[in-house]
């Protein structure tokens, strides 16, 4: 049952345009929906496409801002995020659906479904078993935590790259500065990292050369993690087995780009987080964070402006 708000409930603005679902989520968390001039909290939804314009809705009264995205590089790169007010992202909220997509891309690569889908004749493309594969998770947050149990029934050997300390359930954890160490071992390199100045182009020609010639590169993080030209060269030269990408650089991937016709590339157009699942997960995150805000508890997904995520 949705709680009845009162005059003592903190005022939360939802914008830049009205959104019935998120306004209901604010009330469910114990807040009341108000205009931007009265708000102590601001919830942006996916219509907030212009960070510089949207940030004008944050006033001197604002104590907390909720962004709708897990990746916030468009905001941090412009220096728009500060520690006062507190800014939160949707990091972790979309983990189940994006992990499911990453898992599907790995299986598609193993069974060469991209080649079968393009075939115009009965030409068998040899695939391989996914069971027992070595999977490197480059970045380990909400998506990684959801993906790891999906790999367990397949008896995968999992390597994690994170600065958050040892990860339970994986064979080995390495720091972000040592991510190259896992590349030669992996059948599947899964990019889950946030896009920051430090991770921009983290997979370039040198890193691709470290990968096995039958390994697949999976990207459900951000397109800018990969040097696209270097990837095209590696695919054309047979230096890696394939690439399955839900995000690209540039994005959208232009018509006629060589990745579209590369036989060992599988492209999905940034659909790992389907709209219905996205909207439900964002509403739940808003409810959870409004409730925490009302009760003075730590918020979920607090952004570190210096780290960029």
UniProtKB/TrEMBL annotation:
It holds the Pfam family 2-Hacid_dh_C. Gene3D superfamilies: NAD(P)-binding Rossmann-like Domain. Residues 104-272 form the D-isomer specific 2-hydroxyacid dehydrogenase NAD-binding domain. One of its GO terms (molecular function) is phosphoglycerate dehydrogenase activity. It is an enzyme of class 1 (oxidoreductase). InterPro entries: D-isomer_DH_CS (IPR029753), D-isomer_DH_NAD-bd (IPR006140), NAD(P)-bd_dom_sf (IPR036291). Coiled coil: none annotated. Its EC number is 1.1.1.95. Keywords: NAD, Oxidoreductase. This is D-3-phosphoglycerate dehydrogenase. It comes from Microlunatus antarcticus. The lineage of its organism: Bacteria, Bacillati, Actinomycetota, Actinomycetes, Propionibacteriales.
């Amino acid at each position: 049952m949705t709680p009845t708000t009162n005059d003592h409930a903190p005022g939360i603005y939802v914008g830049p345009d009205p959104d019935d679902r998120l306004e209901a989520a604010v009330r469910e968390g114990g807040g009341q929906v108000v205009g931007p001039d009265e708000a102590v909290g601001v919830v942006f939804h996916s219509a907030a496409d212009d960070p510089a314009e949207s940030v004008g809705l944050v006033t001197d009264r604002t104590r907390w801002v909720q962004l709708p995205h897990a990746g916030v590089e468009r905001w941090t790169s412009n220096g728009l995020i500060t520690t006062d007010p507190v800014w939160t992202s949707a990091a972790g909220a979309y983990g189940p659906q994006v992990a499911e997509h990453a898992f599907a891309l790995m299986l598609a690569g193993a069974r060469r479904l991209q080649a079968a889908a393009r075939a115009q004749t009965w030409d068998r493309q040899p695939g391989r078993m996914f069971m027992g594969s070595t999977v490197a998770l480059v970045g380990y947050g909400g998506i990684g935590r959801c993906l790891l149990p999906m790999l367990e029934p397949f008896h995968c050997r999992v390597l994690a790259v994170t600065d958050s300390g040892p990860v339970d359930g994986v064979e080995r954890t390495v720091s972000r500065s040592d991510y190259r160490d896992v590349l030669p071992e992996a059948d599947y390199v899964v990019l889950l990292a946030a896009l920051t100045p430090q991770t921009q182009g983290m997979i370039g020609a040198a890193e691709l050369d470290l990968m096995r010639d039958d390994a697949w590169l999976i990207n459900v993080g951000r397109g800018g993690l990969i040097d696209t030209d270097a990837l095209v060269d590696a695919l054309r030269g047979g230096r890696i087995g394939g690439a399955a990408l839900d995000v690209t650089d540039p994005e959208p991937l232009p018509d006629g780009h060589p990745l579209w016709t590369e036989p060992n590339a599988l492209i999905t157009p940034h659909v790992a987080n389907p709209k219905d699942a996205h909207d439900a997960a964002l509403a739940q995150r808003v409810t959870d964070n409004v409730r925490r805000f009302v009760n003075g508890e730590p918020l979920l997904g607090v952004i570190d402006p210096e780290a960029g995520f």
